[in-house]
Every structure is written in C-alpha cells, then in structure tokens.
Amino acid sequence: MTHVLSYMTNPETWKGWKKLPYQGVVKRDWVATGRIDFATRLNGNAGDAEQPSEFKLLVEERRVVESIAGNENLEIQWRPATLKEAKAVVTQYHKYLSENSLIKTVFDEAISLPPPRETQDSPSN
User: Fold this and answer.
1) What is the pTM of this model?
2) Is 34 left (phi over 0), alpha (psi -120 to 50) or beta?
3) In sequence order, which residues have a C-beta less than 8 Å from that of residue 66 and are 6 or more positions away?
4) Using CA atoms, how far apart are residues 72 and 66, in angstroms rounded to an integer?
C-alpha cells in the first residue's frame, strides 16, 4: 500500500500515463474516403491568391478502432497523396475538360505566326 501511495502522490508519475500508446483494436484499417483537398502556404495576403504557388494534394482516410471498453471510434486523417492517386485526379480532370469542350488549344486563331523564312542551301551564292 505504501508503494501505491507514493506512486499516486508523486506528480511526476502522472505524466507518464499520457505517453502510453493508444491500446485499441483496429477493426477496419485506413481506407480512402474519396475526398481530396489542396493545401498550400498562404500568408493571409489577398494578393497571394493570384500568384503561382506550390500545392499539395491531400487525401482523406478513415479507420475504425475498437477501444478497450468496446466502443467503436472513427478516426479520420488527411495525408499527402501518392503519385498514383495524383495521376488519377489529373486523368479525371482532363477527361472532364475534354467531355465538356473546355480544353483550349495552344494556338489561338487570333494570333498568327510569321511565315517561316526561306534558307539558301549553299552560302556561296
């Protein structure tokens, strides 16, 4: 009993229990929900919204963990997308653009290029 009282009255021992790993049973492991988002660094300036920036594609995942008491807890996390997931998003985006005739060509009819110059075959002429 003396050991228990010394453990309970010492505040330093109370901090250690928060560092223990969560002891639950994973019922369903991480599964992608299909939700995506983009993240970037903005300093809060309205002008930054028009400037080119680096974006990260984020993917939402969830899993179900059963606690020690038998309760099921839903855990949600956002993680950076894999290259395969990013390619799938870009493929779907391009498909949407082409199906709705939203893809613009590189050459606009309003801009005309100068005709190519004729070159001489032999510089001695």
Assistant:
1) 0.57
2) left
3) 24, 25, 26, 27, 72, 73
4) 4
